[in-house]
Specification:
Among the domains are: 72 residues, Winged helix-like DNA-binding domain superfamily/Winged helix DNA-binding domain (Arc Repressor Mutant, subunit A, Orthogonal Bundle), CATH 1.10.10; 253 residues, Bira Bifunctional Protein, Domain 2 (BirA Bifunctional Protein, domain 2, 2-Layer Sandwich). The chain has 507 residues and is of the alpha+beta class. The protein is flat.
Length: 507
């Protein structure tokens, strides 16, 4: 048996000698350092040697917990529920929600999260008192298992959790759902030389001369008859190649564009820096609306003002705001300000681009769409960005109805792979009637994706449009997260090379 295996490839001999030197189980990562061979070469060689009975392969599955950025923040400070607890204790151990809200330094988002966890952890008693909710805390609870694990991760950065009890794994899973840690599996491969391998090395081996490519010279000379060709195992691991490809986000945007173009739509683009007139006033949004406040909208210091369209359009819009003009509405009943309308902002929705186009193309038929960036003054977290994409479109024609709009979006979502689509009555400021489109996803149930409806007369009539205008608009990122199986919206734009490489190319 041994004599039949005396001839080995040079790389096989190198790996066998390294294993024979130690005669104990060696990780492939350690063999890389000892032999100078790369990972794939050793994995491939170990498969050959294992098939010949000269080595045994072993695989161990491990799971590592890695602390994320938000997790580090809470390690440096404390979990929001602990912070809220301390606020209640500072207020004497008993306080109403309104009192706690005024005293706490937590954001609105963290305040809501903290309340939920305080209730779950049973750190406080919730009581009704004079139509208010009262929270009572008797004592400071000790550090929970989740806080202890976060502290350990803060010191080490990453830990192997494969051997931890199920109770601890449940806590880690909870921390992962809170986007404080990331659990990622790892396969640790190791090798050990067999008795057969030891005997072979000790008896002496020679390098087998094998050819991997059949050349024209071998065929012409006839030497192919005497040549030993290397066998190929199609299941043997090979080096992963990462070809150049389009970013997954851009790839999905291009797919969306292709769908709308195929449905007969024309793509439109507009400026990122917009006037308040086109962003708000043209859409019949009052000038004292909360959405115009600086905590929701980015206002520019330079330039501070923008040009308004022709006087007729401005006059029609101002009259519609003040008394309804010829739209059948009573308007908002205030004195419309040109100064407010000229303010410059970063557009908060692509509807500003749509209404610009509609003003220049009031005659039907019109079918246009846009997939472009918008900007809002949002606090960044796992589901909010300050800069993101919006999918927007309108259909203008004499006899179009809400049913046509529902059919258009149903076809759009089905082409993206969402077979179950439903629509629910809703409210949006510049459409009436209005609907919310939803798609069914097995893991999450029904997911809301975009708002839609028919533009109100106060929006269309000032621009001379007398026929129905079907309109829709929604965030691109939620759609992208569903298609790309992500839980944190920030992952779309982190440019994680590993994630970009792993995400398959869609043809």
């Amino acid at each position: 048996m041994v004599n039949k295996q005396r001839k080995l490839r040079e790389i096989e001999i190198k790996v066998l000698k390294a294993l024979n030197k130690n005669k104990t189980e060696i990780k492939i990562s350690d063999l890389e350092r000892e032999t100078g061979l790369d990972h794939i070469a050793i994995v491939r060689t170990s498969a050959w040697l294992s098939e010949k009975g000269l080595v045994k392969q072993k695989e161990i599955q491990k799971v590592h917990a890695e602390l994320l950025k938000e997790g580090y923040t809470y390690v440096e400070k404390e979990l929001p529920e602990r912070s809220l607890l301390n606020t209640i204790l500072k207020l004497g151990g008993s306080a109403t929600l309104s009192q706690i809200s005024r005293e706490t330094k937590l954001s609105d988002k963290d305040f809501k999260i903290a309340l939920g966890w305080i209730r779950t952890k049973n750190w406080a008693k919730f009581k009704k008192q004079d139509e208010e909710t009262l929270l009572q805390v008797k004592e400071i609870p000790p550090l929970g298992k989740d806080e202890e694990l976060l502290k350990v991760l803060g010191d080490k950065g990453e830990i192997d959790v494969s051997q931890l009890p199920n109770e601890t794994m449940k806590i880690l899973d909870s921390l992962q759902k809170r986007n404080l840690i990331r659990l990622h599996p790892e396969t640790v491969r190791s090798l050990i030389i067999t008795e057969e391998g030891i005997k072979l090395i000790q008896s002496g081996v020679t390098v087998s001369e094998e050819v991997s490519i059949l050349t024209s010279d071998l065929i012409k000379s006839g030497k192919w008859r005497e040549t030993v060709f290397r066998k190929y195992d199609v299941e043997t691991p090979v080096k992963v190649i990462y070809p150049g490809k389009i970013h997954p986000v851009i790839e999905l945007i291009n797919e969306i564009r292709e769908i709308f173009l195929d449905l007969g739509f024309t793509e439109i683009r507009g400026p990122f820096v917009e006037s308040a007139f086109w962003n708000f006033d043209a859409l019949f949004q009052p000038q004292d609306h909360p959405a115009r406040e600086m905590h929701d909208t980015f206002y520019l210091k330079f330039p501070t003002t923008a040009k308004l369209p022709n006087k007729k359009i401005v006059q029609n819009v101002s009259k519609t705001h003040e008394d309804g003009w010829e739209t059948g509405s009573t308007g908002w009943g205030y004195k419309w300000s040109t100064k407010v309308a000229r303010q410059t902002i970063m557009r908060t929705h692509t509807t500003a681009t749509t209404i610009r186009y509609l003003a220049d193309h009031p005659d039907p038929p019109v079918k246009v769409f846009s997939v472009d960036r918008v900007y809002r003054n949002e606090k960044l977290d796992y589901k909010h960005l300050a800069e993101f994409f919006q999918i927007e479109g309108i259909v203008v024609d004499e006899n179009v109805t809400l049913r046509d709009l529902m059919g258009t979006l149903t076809e759009f979502y089905k082409r993206l792979g969402f077979e179950k689509v439903q629509f629910w009555p809703s409210y949006f400021p510049y459409t009436e009637p209005s609907l919310q489109s939803t798609v069914y996803v097995e893991e999450f149930g029904w997911i809301e994706l975009c708002g839609m409806g028919i533009f109100r007369p106060e929006v269309t009539i000032p621009f001379g449009v007398k026929v129905p205008v079907l309109a829709w608009g929604g965030g691109f990122e939620r759609l992208a997260m569903l298609r790309l199986d992500l839980e944190d919206i920030r992952d779309l734009y982190r440019n994680d090379l590993g994630w970009i490489r792993r995400t398959p190319i869609v043809f």
